[in-house]
Each structure stands twice: as structure tokens, then as C-alpha cells.
Design goal:
With 105 residues, the chain is mostly beta strands. The protein is built from two helices and seven strands; from the N terminus they run ββββαβαββ.
Length: 105
Amino acid sequence: LKGKIVYGKGTIVGEVFVYEPGGKFTQIKGKKIFVFRHFAPVHIQFLKKAKAIITEGGGLLSHAAIVCREAKIPCLVDVAGATRVLQSGQSITVDFNQGFVKIKD
């Protein structure tokens, strides 16, 4: 998967949490790489538990991009197919130098 780099350098390895409306945010243990179809103001609560944010939609001036830059949370936007390909619990590597997401075997 490939996206546009909003904020971040180097690579981050972590566990995926794919957001689904109505999901249980309070049950999340530890920091995760959150994946959203679109990031809305209501999702700001996820930032405190985020290693990184990935969104399918949005651009460099989207809500996710602005909020993540302000909070200094690594973020990729415009990652086509992210919520279809990635699954909660998977381990992934996000390359913030090239904008790639790689699923770990």
C-alpha cells in the first residue's frame, strides 16, 4: 500500500486497529496504528493511543493531516484500500520516508 506522507520520518512497526463505526475504543491496550476510512473530529480521542494514523481518504490539508501534524503523530493519507487490506491485530511496518505500508509475515 502507498500513501501521502503528512508527518513522520523513518519507519514505525506496530499492531493495526481498523476503525469501524460503533467499535469499542476503550478496550484498546497499548499504542496502535489506527486505520480509518476518513478521519473526523470525533476521532481525536484516538490520538492518545496512536503510534500512527493511516487514512484511505484525505489529502495534505485534510482533518487527519492537520490534527496529526499539530499533535506530532506520524500520518499517511490517501492510502487506497487500507481498510480492505489491513486487519485489526496485524503487524505492519509503515515507512514514512517513502510512504509505504508493508504487512509483516
